[in-house]
Amino acid sequence: AKWRWLSSLAIREQIDAMLLLDGDSYLHERGRVPPLPCRWIPLVMHPRFLRIPSQPDTSRYLRSETVPFAYVLDEGIRPGLERHIGKPVYKFPDLSNASVACRPDWASEIKRRRRDRKVVGVFGAVNAHKNIGGVLALASARQDLFFVIAGIPFLHKLSLAERQAVRSAMTSQNIFWVLREVPDAELNYLHTLSDILFAAYLQFPHSANRLTKSADFGKPVVVSRGFYMEEVVNNYGLGVSCDPTSVASMSAVSVLVI
Fold first, then answer.
1. Do strands 196-199 and 17-20 pair parallel, antiparallel, or not at all (unpaired)?
2. What is the pLDDT of residues 46-99, one digit of tens each?
3. How many CA atoms lie within 13 A of 178 on its CB side?
4. Helical H runs in the chain?
5. How far apart are CA 180 and CA 125, in angstroms?
6. Rounded alpha-carbon distances, angstroms, from residue 252 to 22, 141, 202
7. How far apart (Å, rounded) are the C-alpha atoms in residues 120 and 147?
8. Can you tell me whether residue 11 is helix, strand or coil?
């Protein structure tokens, strides 16, 4: 249905070329290459198979004659994907909205409760691959730090142990929760309050907006070892990397950055 809609749109509007910013949703492991009546240029945000060999190769559609080239956010895999599909692949800039809202009502509560502690900003979906279990273990071990956790909760996708950890942490004195969708301007305000950004995710080989926010607001970021974000952090001096499965490793780099 998605391809049929694009095809009818191209014909109706006489489109010569389409830039698909959600390119990954059009790349399938199996199936026929779609016969679009125009050129289409995908932004491939999650080429996991080039970072994690066990992942399925999703590049088949990129070899279509109607794809003149492709964009990626992960500049580290750009040469490999270019060789793999036999056509140009370009780096697409990772963009971010840096506007900041007026001080939200709950900002004063964060400042009151943090006291003289450094703030660790943990922003984005509250789920397993964003390492909520590791975050809460770190918060429990480091009462000298104050954690602000903001984002949509996906508690039904957590393990029983992770759900129990979240419930137990709801009353923690060094955690402030904002469990809802946070508008960009409010989320950016939270970035200004943070001393360090946490992005040490699990099995997450892609780019994440936390890198852009780190650069926008001059806040050091902690990321996982072994993937794209570590390369960016090292290349541009944005922060440090750690083992996201080790509380000791995460704690050590937090001390180093702060």
1. unpaired
2. 888 999 989 888 888 888 888 999 999 999 999 999 999 999 999 998 888 888
3. 21
4. 2-13, 78-85, 107-114, 132-141, 160-169, 184-193, 209-217, 228-236, 247-257
5. 9
6. 37, 11, 18
7. 5
8. helix
Question: Could you tell me the two tokens for 49?
Answer: 């198979």
Partnered with residue 71 across adjacent β-strands are: 43, 90
CA-closest candidate to residue 174, choices 254, 253, 243:
254
- The answer to whether 214 touches 221, Cβ cutoff 8 Å, is yes
pTM: predicted TM-score of the whole model, two decimal places:
0.89
Rg (CA), the chain: 21
At 67, is the secondary structure helix, strand, or coil? coil
HSE of 88 in the Cβ direction (CA atoms, 13 Å)? 6
Tokens 């580290």, located at residue: 76
What's the one-letter identity of residue 8?
Answer: S
Distance between CA atoms of residues 129 and 147, nearest Å: 18
Contact 64, 93 (CB under 8 A): no
Q: Which of 101, 55, 99 is nearest to 77 (CA)?
A: 55
